[in-house]
Specification:
The structure holds two protein chains of two kinds. By secondary structure, chain A is of the alpha+beta class. Chain A contains five helices and six strands; from the N terminus they run αβαβαββββαα. In chain A, strands 1-2 form a two-stranded parallel ribbon. Chain A has a two-stranded antiparallel sheet with strand order 3-4. A two-stranded antiparallel ribbon of chain A has the order 5-6. Chain B has a domain of about 55 residues. Classes of the chains: A alpha+beta, B mainly beta.
């Protein structure tokens, strides 16, 4: 999975309120047994949840950052955010689909309709498309 | 095992926000809880955090170090849980 992020030129950074020491132990005791060589991306420590608070994911009652992920483009603009309560894990396939869609949009100026996957038809926004989406896009 | 770096002797800065307007003489600084500032379509809020990097050790990481690349930020509740 990480190779796919790498191929897309994406930098992954993970954050939790755990200290860097706990990150190291987690890598040594568990992650390195799940991922060959351990997770390759920087594991950041958000002690006190100050960064999480700014990003709207810090839960003061529990004192932790809940599951939130953000896609940031090369111009440093936030393109997407998804925040879940902790019980449900994320879908990395959907994350990759969104990154591919945003990269396509930035590269071409086209827009991607609902559920778009690479290779499928895109839309070219403009007056000519108004009222004619049904002609070009048949999901 | 290669020697790992301890590059985090100084505490990380956390969120890096524009400086607030100067206070009037005698005013007490506001003690507000930090508010959510992240918005889609708006510039990301920069921050610095201490990080563990496999094969490197501990080092400070600034979000803006990665300006010019696509970045995925992933927050999660805690180590030793599923991500």
């Amino acid at each position: 999975m990480y190779d796919e992020f790498k191929a897309l030129g994406v930098v992954v950074l993970s954050l939790s309120t755990d200290s860097r020491f706990i990150h190291k132990m987690w890598q040594e005791y568990e992650l390195s047994k799940m991922v060959k060589g351990g997770v390759p991306f920087p594991m950041l420590s958000d002690g006190g949840g100050k960064i999480g608070a700014i990003y709207g994911v810090y839960d003061e009652a529990a004192g932790v950052d809940i599951r939130g992920r953000f896609i940031i483009d090369p111009d440093f603009v936030i393109r997407a955010m998804e925040v879940l309560t902790p019980e449900v894990g994320r879908n990395p396939k959907e994350l990759i689909r969104q990154i591919k869609a945003f990269q396509h949009v930035v590269a071409t100026g086209e827009v991607t309709p609902s559920g778009w996957e690479p290779g499928q038809v895109t839309l070219k926004p403009g007056p000519a498309l108004v009222g004619r989406v049904w002609e070009v896009w048949k999901p | 095992m290669p020697e790992l770096k301890e590059g985090c002797v100084k505490p990380a800065r956390g969120p890096i926000l524009p400086a607030p307007p100067p206070l009037l003489a005698g005013a007490t600084p506001p003690q507000e809880a930090p508010k959510m500032l992240a918005r889609v379509g708006k510039e990301a809020i920069d921050f610095e955090a201490t990080a563990f990097v496999e094969g490197v050790g501990f080092q400070p990481v600034k979000l803006s170090d990665y300006k010019g690349k696509w970045i995925v930020l992933c927050f999660y509740p805690g180590d030793f849980t599923f991500v």
